[in-house]
Structures are given as C-alpha cells and as structure tokens.
Design goal:
binds adenosine-5'-diphosphate, mainly alpha, Rossmann fold, two-stranded parallel sheet, 53% helix, three-stranded parallel β-sheet, Tyrosyl-Transfer RNA Synthetase, binds tryptophan
Length: 336
C-alpha cells in the first residue's frame, strides 16, 4: 500500500487526569488538525505505554475512558478523526520487537525523558527503557507523515526517524520504496505550559490544573499558583508571572496587551490591581473556555456505550492500516 500524502498521528497516555498542559500542548492542536486533514488523523490512547507507570487495572480502564470522553467533549469528530485504544491494535507490539532488533542501546540511552526519570529516582523497568521503541512502532505502523506533539516528545520522534532508517537499511529496502517512512514533528504553537509551581505542568509533578476543574476546586487550585510577594497596587512583572503565562493562553493578543498594562501599572481602571485579581480573571477564563465542552462531557459520561463505539470503530480502520504495514515488514525481514 502506498503512503498517504498526509497522515497525522499522535498518542496520549491515560496515566491521570488531563490538564491544561495537555490541552494547549497537544489536544487543541489534534482537534484543529481534523479540519485540515479530515479522514487522515489517527489519535490513540497509549494504554500499553501507561503500563510503564500505572499498576491498577481499574484505574487504567477508567483513565482510558476519561481520555476518550475528554477528546470527544473537546470537539474530536469521529467522522473526521480516529480515536482508538493503542492495545486494540496489538500488531504494534510486534513491530516494536522488530524495531528493537535494529536499534542500538546507545540511541535509547541518550533519551532525555528516560534519563530525567532515572535522575528523579524512578527504578527503570525494561519497558521504560524501550518506551521510545514502542512509540516509534506507533508512528511507523500507520505510515504517519506528521506527528503533532509538545516539546518534550520531539526527541522521541527524532528517534523514530532513526529507527525507520535503520530498519530500511538493515533489510535492504529500495531507496524509492522504503518499508517504513520517516515522519516529521509538528510542534504545537504552545509547546510549554507552566504548572502552578512554575515548573512544566505535568501529571508527574502534581502541579496541574485539570481541564475540567471548575467551581470551588478550580478556585482553590488557581489560588495556589506561585507568585512573588509584590503588594497590591505595585507594578507586577508580567513576564515572570505564572498567572500571566496561563492567562495568556486564553487571551487574544489585544486583551493580552491590556492585561500587560494592568501588570505594568499595578492598576486597572484607576483601581489597584494585584495577583488576586489576575487569578480571579484566570478562573473566569478557564470556566468560560471549557463551558460547552463541560456540558458535552456530562452527556458523554451518561452514555458510555457511545464512547466505546467510537473507540471500536476507529480501531477497526486503524487495524487495517497496521496489518498492511506489519505484513510488509514481516516479508522484509523474513518472518513467515
Ligand atoms: P504529563 O507530563 O502530564 O504526563 P504527557 O507526557 O502524557 O503529560 O503529555 C501528553 C501530551 O501533552 C504530549 O504531547 C506533551 O507534549 C503535551 N504536554 C504535556 N505537558 C505539557 C506542558 N506542560 N506544556 C505543553 N505541552 C505539554
Ligand atoms: N509518549 C507520548 C507522551 O507521553 C505518548 C505517545 C505514545 C505518543 N505513542 C505516541 C505520541 C506516538 C505521539 C506519537 O506524551
């Protein structure tokens, strides 16, 4: 089967509640791309990858469902984009094995994400070490041309490019008909979202604002965003402020400039302006931005069969593509 001219692919781990970093760094772009590449967007919930950290079967199942509901609520249209469970296409694990046989240890040893986790004291499993191989298989098995991800995943996509080349060279693919195709990264327009403590927002740092947080719990989380101790009414440093960075995600350029002026002068409409006001504004923006999605989410929660049907239908199509690539690779390396 020949490669499509454009095929978008990305995965997201079901390892906890999705947050604003995931939304602005990944999900928003995934959903926008369905308009540009209708029928060619493949998104999956990386449950095999989540096994590197999750040890609770019920929690994993619940997280998978939650990711699916979140994408659908935020506007993923199953007529335009596929949304499936990684494990519903088990062919990907076989391709991962083939790739692991042509991948040097050195390539994996250089992975920042692996090194960071080990440096944080996580005892690495073999699965954590070979995580990028499975990720490469995810990308290559669907002949993806474009992989939209946040900054932290760029190195993994570059490793995927290397693995595709190694496989093609190892098994003597003709130059004009490679077995596996090198994908390109598409970096999100907002590749870095800070968490409430100012570090990268991440499930593993406990510093997230969940996409659907609202009411009292949202106020409480936003209230905990770390700021300096400039008193009310004094000029505030917008460019060093986590609240401003988060607010900016929700503001049009002209609004952003207006808020910047409030920061610079420490006043809004003649009244003193401080971090408390900025936080209140952030709460309002988050509530407003996700109001419609929150309502759709409630509907989807009440209809789990509808969500499951989307996952299954998408997996069927994805599996057809995956089987065809796997066949090609098996023939290339002499398996059956
Ligand atoms: P987490 O760090 O919370 O475990 P994941 O690694 O599961 O998040 O990331 C899923 C997607 O969301 C990836 O494409 C990643 O690049 C993006 N992403 C995660 N956190 C952020 C962030 N703080 N800023 C921008 N993008 C992010
Ligand atoms: N590693 C990605 C993350 O943690 C998730 C992922 C798995 C992925 N397979 C992928 C992303 C393939 C893009 C393409 O965010």
């Amino acid at each position: 089967m020949s490669r499509p001219t454009a095929r978008v692919l990305s995965g997201i781990q079901p390892s906890g509640q999705l947050h604003l970093g995931n939304y602005f760094g990944a999900i928003a772009q995934h959903i926008a791309l369905q308009e540009r590449y209708p029928g060619e967007c493949f998104y999956f919930i990386a449950d095999y990858h989540a096994l590197t950290t999750v040890r609770d079967a019920d929690a994993l199942r619940a997280n998978v469902h939650d990711v699916a509901v979140t994408y659908l609520a935020l506007g993923l249209d199953p007529e335009k984009a596929l949304l499936f469970r990684q494990s519903d296409v088990p062919e990907v694990t076989e391709l991962a094995w083939m790739l692991s046989c042509v991948t040097g240890m050195g390539l994996l040893e250089r992975a920042h994400s692996y090194k960071d986790k080990v440096a944080k004291g996580i005892r690495p499993s073999v699965g954590l070490f070979t995580y990028p191989v499975l990720m490469a298989a995810d990308i290559l098995i669907y002949d993806a041309t474009v992989v939209p991800v946040g900054k932290d995943q760029v190195q993994h996509v570059e490793m995927t490019q290397d693995m595709a080349t190694h496989f093609n060279e190892a098994f003597g693919a003709p130059k004009d008909a490679p077995y596996l195709h090198r994908p390109e990264v598409l970096l999100s327009p907002t590749p870095y979202v800070p968490g409430i403590d100012g570090n990268k927002m991440s499930k593993s740092y406990g510093n997230t604002i969940p996409i659907f947080a609202s009411g009292k719990s949202l106020k409480k989380i936003v209230g905990r965003i770390v700021t300096d101790s400039t008193p009310l009414g004094e000029p505030l440093p917008a460019d060093r402020c986590n609240v401003f960075a988060l607010l900016s995600l929700f503001l049009e350029p002209s609004e952003r400039e207006e808020v910047r002026t409030w920061y610079r002068t420490g006043r809004r409409n003649g009244e003193p302006f401080g971090y408390g006001h900025a936080k209140k504004l952030l709460v309002e923006k988050i509530e407003e931005h996700f109001a419609a999605a929150r309502a759709r989410r409630a509907e989807l929660e009440a209809d789990p069969d509808r969500v499951e049907a989307v996952l299954r239908r998408s997996a069927e199509r994805a599996r057809q593509v995956a089987s065809s690539t796997l066949d090609r690779c098996r023939r290339a390396c002499g398996i059956r």
